[in-house]
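Quick one:
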Amino acid sequence: MAFASLFTLLDDIASVLDDVAVMTKMAAKKTAGVVGDDLALNANQVTGVSADRELPIVWAVAKGSLINKVILVPFSLLLSVFLPWLITPLLVIGGAFLCFEGVEKLLHKFLNKHSGGDGHHAASDEIVDEKTKIKGAIRTDFILSAEIIIIALGVVGAYGLLTKSLVMSAIGIGMTVVVYGLVAGIVKADDFGMWLMNKPSSAARALGKGIILFMPWFMRSLSVVGMLAMFLVGGGIIAHNVGFVHDFLHALHWDTGLIGQLATLVVGVLTGAAVCAVVLPVMKLFSKKKAH
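Output:
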């Protein structure tokens, strides 16, 4: 009797694990696009720092990303059980925030293009900038992770709580390992190129030289790709979850293919501009009051 119960338990466990494997694969396919955007965004977030600080920053952001998953997975499961109607509004707020950050970065880039400092507090500023980069990257990761977790939750909606928990945990941890492993590889690629250039093999030296020549162009392109990803992800959340925007794009057949991507980009920029028009004056007002 005991052996029969044990075999039944093992069979149940095997069945759950099989469901988890299948559902994790399906959820991974569904979230692949957002994970790609997450990679571009996070690689862009940690660029522009001294070489000896690149990996510590990536590690700090990766730890923050894991904490995000620890918060998001149980929170999303609780929401799906008790307040399922709240998931979409929270996603929309997160998408609008991504668009806001994108427009804010554009404004900062163009308005401060010709400004320069005197370098008096260079070391202090570098520390502050590093902390700002880490906080910004973790904040952005939180929103992207939320979308990925919600997409995964949609895939496993019909399954039990255990299967949901395991699939979403697997997606969350796997995404963090893959994304930040690749980010670490990207930011240290030039060091790998230098290492290859010191090898006796002419093929290794040629490959190393190619990497060294390619990486500056690649890192510059990441800033553009990361910015586009911010608008595409944020705009995509708005376009799919705000009724009148979705209906408008669908009526014009602007919701598929290349035109759909362009429309999503425009939605992202317009949303970010609208949020900036409201939020930036309020932020400026509060900063003035704080100064006084």
